[in-house]
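Components:
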Amino acid sequence: MCLGVPGKVIEVDGWTAIVDFWGVRKQVLLNIVDEPVAPGDYILNHVGFAIRRIPPESVAETLALYESLLNDDVDDLMAADIRGEVKGTT
Amino acid sequence: MSAELQFRDPQLARELAATLARLVDEIGRKVAVMHVCGSHEQAIAKFGLRSLFPKNLDVIMGPGCPVCVTDTPEVDEGVVLAHQGVRIATFGDMLKVPGTVQSLADAQASGGKLEIVYSPKQAVDLARNTNDEVVFFATGFETTAVATAAVVLDNPPPNFSVLSAHKYIPPVMEIVAEMPESRIEGFLAAGHAATITGWAVFEPFVERHGVPVVVAGFEPIDILAGLVELVQRVRDQKPRVVNMFPRCVTREGNRAAQEQLWRVFRPLGGRWRGIAHVPNGNLRLRDEFAHVDARRRFTIDLPSLWDYAPPQLARQCICGDIMAGIRNPRDCRLFNKECVPENPIGACMVSSEGTCKIWHLYGGVPDLAEVSA
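Structure:
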């Protein structure tokens, strides 16, 4: 539940961003993010809110980690939590 | 998934495991450390990490599952509100958590209105589209509480309120460290909670208790490296806070989020299920937000529920001892027998972050070495 999930910012409109999570585009709120966010940045999403702008030098490593955790095993609790985080967006 | 993917650097994993074994040998006795994060336990179980840990090292999951520590009376408040006709919006994990008499799922089955949401924002959207009173039953640690704070500050509709069961992690570490039975000599702190609070939040704790805290990420290598650092500090008796997850965690953390968190919430003492009364462990809405506080907006008639005795089996549940690190699921006579995810007796079997649910899913034996032996 405390797991954030990374996504790429596509558009920013005020406090709302459109963010791409592995091809799925969702709305994420920017009210509590630590740094200003612009299209092209990566953010960590938790329950529909960006909690951190991922520093550019850490993006590749962060994405690789999540891709290694996601798989099609329906019983995998960690993968399920990551998918749940993406559902937290609208 | 291939072994290559599970351990992106298997050689490094083996080296770290060997270093860990050497350090524990040098200490020459049993060492127990605790992590406080469901995602850490998921990774440890999923990747079979316990088979790499030395025999003399106990890595215990503490109270790192927010759903599990939501206290029975808090569930009862949600159940009573559901029966009073408000629409309860909450995270899916909360549904089966046992209350004194009913879970929220039971309340729904007997006519209560219940909606599963994945975000506080979805609860607000729900309120905008109905005339019903919508109460967001808010659970989670500080990472999630900041999102609740943000919707409270963002002018929610008048029919929206919050029943806060949010919990704050740093105070419960104090409680665990002070338990007379506690053997915990170090803590592995969760990367994403520290993203919000910053790692400096643990400094007063380390000073008071002389116990090291290492902030670690969620990859197998992150966890192994975090344990090596932690056990090294135990061996050298040089406790301090070490940040091993710098790609997510800074010293100060996310200031904007902290500012909103503390503007909306104040820390208050309260019970964590099965553990203890935790001073400053609960996050409750400040007086300025009384209009959004379900506890002040509604009269919640709890005593009406408490006339009932708790079910017989629940008395045998040892979730509290498990979360305090004193016992483990295999010490529980209900585990994998009467208590299974489909019909949980205790909260630790409900959530995907509960120790019992994680152990159940990964075979009930956390150490793969024991299976092959």
